[in-house]
Amino acid sequence: MARGRRGHDSSQNSVSAPPFARGMRIGLFGGSFNPPHAGHALVCAIALRRLGLDRIWLMVSPGNPLKSREGLPPLGERMAQARKIMRDPRIVVTDFEAGIGAAFSYQTVDYLRRACPGVHFVWIMGADNLGAFFRWRRWREIARAMPILVIDRPGSTHRAVHGLVGGWFARYRLPESQAKTLPLRRPPALIVLHGPRSPLSSTQLRAKKRG
Description:
Layout: E1 25-31, H1 38-51, E2 55-60, H2 75-85, E3 91-94, H3 96-100, H4 105-115, E4 120-126, H5 127-131, H6 139-145, E5 148-151, H7 157-161, H8 164-169, E6 190-193, H9 202-210
Parallel strand pairs: 1-2, 1-4, 2-3, 4-5, 5-6
């Protein structure tokens, strides 16, 4: 199994990807996770079960380029919080994006395709993020680089599926019954999974904490 090296800066970020092996099915679930919560754990549980994934890399980012970093807790603090919540040993909490200097998701995808040959990656996002996907830098490159799993979110799914990005993906969308095949699909490929949903959101939790 290939192993990542450790960085030598003060934050001790991972310089390369977590351990992996050829043929593995790995889900990539990224975000600022400010804060991580049970809804994120539910997304991981659904993806692991329905897609038959070997691992999920929970990629805690230095910050969302579409949002202000004002008041954003340090990366190490969010990593520690995520590890307390993600109790399944198949979920690997990692900060390697900071270590490789990836400010945008397309950079992460490009790095992983070169650094992890033979791995079957799936990009995981909530339906709310699918609705805003057109704002991501080079989003079509991401869509053409690896299959995408979208998890149903209360109040977001219908609007996202029928929006600009949903329309672009229409001919590449697969039925839920084929979820197990998604990691091996040639991209573009997208599946929207429905199931248990959490009403929790990081935005609401931050607002509640401030209040």
